[in-house]
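haha ok so turns out i had the wrong file open the whole time. this is the CORRECT one, sorry everyone. sequence first:
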Amino acid sequence: MAQTQSSVKDVIPDIGGNFTLDESVIAVLPPGSQCATEGGRIMMEGEFNSMSELYRLAPSFVPKPHAWGRFHLAEPVTHFFLCDFVDMENEMPDPVSFCARLAEIHSCSVSPTGKFGFMVPNCHGKILQSNDWDDDWASFYTKLLVSFFQIEIGINGPWRQYEKAFETIVTIIIPQLLGPLQADGRILKPSLVHGDLWEENAATNLASGDPVVFDASAFYAHNEYELGTWRRKTIKFGRSYFNQYLQNIPPNEPVEQWDDRIRLYSLKFNLAHMIGWPGAPFVREE
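then structure:
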């Protein structure tokens, strides 16, 4: 993250969305305000498009996104993302209303291509996601998981036993657990997911009392993928959230593989954790 101080005159018209920076906004930015460097361009554009897709379906569930763009500074190259300010309570949202809103997005969303993926590149945290359109969910998830695994190995180093176990997951486990979702005449709907739904990206709107989510890394996926991060041991979305979600959307067939699918999806979020926090204890062993 590079520091920059900017005025309205520093902003070029390369802005996505329908928002114009107001001079009063710039005036209250403290000295040393930070914006993402060139490496953050994909993050800012991806965040804007992710939040825009969610806001289009559930405007009370997501802060309204306004714009992303680039400041007119030669050095360092900096980008921004702007959305509404929401005064939030930093507590876990009510499971009933939260899961109802989430399930509504999953149910009502329609992929613009009818496939799994997203319209622009975006990131999970700082990690670029593999999100090219694919009509086969097992294929899409394989590419996504492999890309995260390769980054993780590059950061934390090789481990022969670990790599061999991952090869088994890719060649045997994924086909066994995800292949049946689109086999025997079954149709799997691509649903819009937030993509990184843990307690640090969810809260309660103090003004309305409604649950609110932010910091999305959205794409069109199997809806159950959203629950993968909840399966991680350190995440606060526990049994009550699983139960409430399943009251809104029951497991896909084969139902008996539901729990194994959630465990499989949790692997991607474990990899993201190991990339973000290199050397994190016990995560690889788990």
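The CA atoms of residues 27 and 256 lie 57 Å apart.
again sry for the mixup
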